[in-house]
Every structure is written in C-alpha cells, then in structure tokens.
Amino acid sequence: MDLRAGVRADVQTGAHGVMTTSALRPSRLPELDLRTPTSLEELTGSLAAGWRACGGGTDVLIEALQAGEPTHLVSTAGVHELAQLTCDAGGISIGGSVVLARLVRSTSFRSGVAAVADGAQTIGSIQLRNQATLVGNLCSASPAADTIPGLFVHDARVETVDSSGMTRSTAVSEFLHGPGSTSLHDDEVVTAVQLTPSSPGTGSAYRRFTERNALDLAFAGVAASVALEADGVTIRSVRLALGAVGPTVMDASEVTATLIGRTADTELLASVAEAAAGACSPITDHRCSADYRRQLVHVLTLEVIDEAMRRAGRDDNSDPRVQQGKQR
C-alpha cells in the first residue's frame, strides 16, 4: 500500500501484519507503519500500545505530512463491526468506518437525519467522500466540521470501546472538548454514532458559508431541527447548533424558545436569528472577521429554520443532493 500521497513506495509486510513503506524518492511524509486488524480486540490492543487509529486517512495523513507524526497507524477499515450502517424506526447507527459517500447515497439516511446528510454532502470532493468517514470528521473535533452541527440537532451519542472491552455512550456535546480535543481515551475507538431520526412532522437542515462549494472550510455553519404540531404550522420544538463560531460546535437551542407554540413569521424569525448571532463567540482570523461571522450566523439561521420547517411539511423530508451547488 502506498501511503505517500502519490510518491512511489516499496511495501513489506512484517510481523503482526505491519506494512512498512520505503520511499524511492524524498517526501515530507514520514515513513509510516500500518496495521490492518480484523477484530476490535486487535484494534484496541494496538491503540493501547500507542498506535493511532486511521479511518479514511484524510486528516491523519495531512497531520503526518505537516508534523512528521503519527507514524504508527492502525486501520479501522478491516473490522466488520465498524462497517455497519443501520437506519430504521428505532434509530440510526453509523459504524466507525462508514464513509461519507455511503451516507449520502442512502435514501433512509438522508430522510432520517437530513441535517447530517447536508453536512456530509458538502465535505471535500466526491473522491474524498469515498474515503473519509463521519467518525473521522467527528474525532478531528474541528469547530468548522460540517457534520457535527447536524449531529447536535439529532441528539447524537458516541459509542466507544476500550482495550479491556469496556463500553461507553457519550452525548456528542460532552464528547467534544475543544479544537482537536475529545473525551476519547488513548485505547478507545468509536464503534458507532447513534442518532435520533426525524419523525413525521419534523425536518432538519444544515447550511454553511464558504468561498467555494467544495474543498473549503466553513466560515460559519448552522443546523436546525424543527418539529411542527399536527396543524402543520405551529412550532412544537426547535434545535439549533452553530459551527465555526466558537471552540466547539455550540448548542444554541435556548435562543429559539420564543418560537415554541407559535407560528413563525418574518419578525419572529429575525429576532431568533439576531439572538443566535449574539450568543456565539467567533474569532477574527485570516479568513474573515468575528463580526462577519456573526452576520453569517444571522443569515444562515434564517435559512436553516425555514428549510427545516419546509422539510417538516414533506413526507420525504430531504434529498440533500438537490442542494448541491446551493451552498454559499
């Protein structure tokens, strides 16, 4: 296996199924060892020994390229339990090695958790989505990660197992500690992400602003989930999550309290959008200013609540593929 991003390599398989690359010409990517276990026990055992989990490799190989480490990687791709995707009335379960493209192609996934599917659709390119995993996007813990706001509004729980076989279930808001930081222990692996799908009369959506439609980080991103009463117009509940405007994705559901039990109108939605913009804590960096990000949150909040309400009134909820090209 060539781990050098296009640079030719010799591959030798040694003890314990370790594959070692030897470059034929210089590269900034260091020599890498890759284990390919087929069981959770082998996988977590490698993690306990100091190896680093690697899903699609779209983030960890860039890290190795830039920092010179990690150099000892253990793949999650060969473990059968991590490749499962279940979508039914009881909930949605995304295995640790399920790639983004598989989620986007799943009709039941798109209709059940449209905000997450919207986010998955915007990540990178088709080639990258064929390789990258949702769990990898989550564990990278970027404040600008496109799938995480959707995970918030669908009450995601992160299932893990460690080298002793002990399992945990953690709310996504508690799993994320800060940029690049999670509650995951060194010998733990995420086995699945559990989601609550939209029920009839409920819809969700995610929107972001970028300079390009693909291969770019969000300046700001917003996800919402809206549940309507039986009359189809009165709002029963709202979840709102803001991305790229704080150290972690922010649950801003509290600012939507004025919508509950009411029919949304332009003035009411504008007040909620203004409250969302005021509640976040964006930074100014080389990409844009904090004030600009607050303006984006205001506009995106209006858009996602409106779209979530429209989807709540449709039986099929959403097909994010029709949104491709509509991202800012």
Query: How many structural domains can be distinguished in the coordinates?
Result: 3
Query: What is the level 1 CATH name of the largest domain?
Result: Alpha Beta
Approximate strand percentage? 15-25%
Assembly status: single chain
C-alpha Rg (nearest Å): 20 Å
Q: Give the helix proportion (percent range).
A: 25-40%
Largest sheet: 5 strands, mixed
Which secondary structure elements does this structure contain, and how are they paired or packed?
Blueprint: E1 9-13, E2 18-23, E3 33-35, H1 40-48, E4 52-54, H2 60-67, E5 72-75, E6 85-88, E7 91-95, H3 100-105, H4 107-112, H5 114-122, H6 126-129, H7 134-139, H8 148-153, E8 157-161, E9 167-171, H9 172-175, E10 176-178, E11 181-182, E12 189-195, E13 202-209, E14 220-228, E15 235-243, E16 250-251, H10 266-279, H11 290-312
Parallel strand pairs: 3-5, 4-5
Antiparallel strand pairs: 1-2, 2-3, 6-7, 7-12, 8-9, 8-12, 10-11, 13-14, 14-15, 15-16
Helix pairs in contact: 10-11
Compact description:
The protein has 328 residues and is of the alpha+beta class. It has helices at residues 40-48, 60-67, 100-105, 107-112, 114-122, 126-129, 134-139, 148-153, 172-175, 266-279, 290-312, and strands at residues 9-13, 18-23, 33-35, 52-54, 72-75, 85-88, 91-95, 157-161, 167-171, 176-178, 181-182, 189-195, 202-209, 220-228, 235-243, 250-251.
Report on the structure:
With 328 residues, the protein is an alpha+beta fold. The chain folds into three domains: 9-75, no CATH class; 81-195, 2-Layer Sandwich (Uridine Diphospho-n-acetylenolpyruvylglucosamine Reductase, domain 3); 202-207 and 218-323, Enolase-like, domain 1 (2-Layer Sandwich), CATH 3.30.390. It has helices at 40-48, 60-67, 100-105, 107-112, 114-122, 126-129, 134-139, 148-153, 172-175, 266-279, 290-312, and strands at residues 9-13, 18-23, 33-35, 52-54, 72-75, 85-88, 91-95, 157-161, 167-171, 176-178, 181-182, 189-195, 202-209, 220-228, 235-243, 250-251. The chain has a five-stranded mixed β-sheet with strand order 1-2-3-5-4, with helices on one face. β15 and β16 form a beta hairpin. The chain is globular. Residues 1-26 and 320-328 have low confidence and may be disordered.
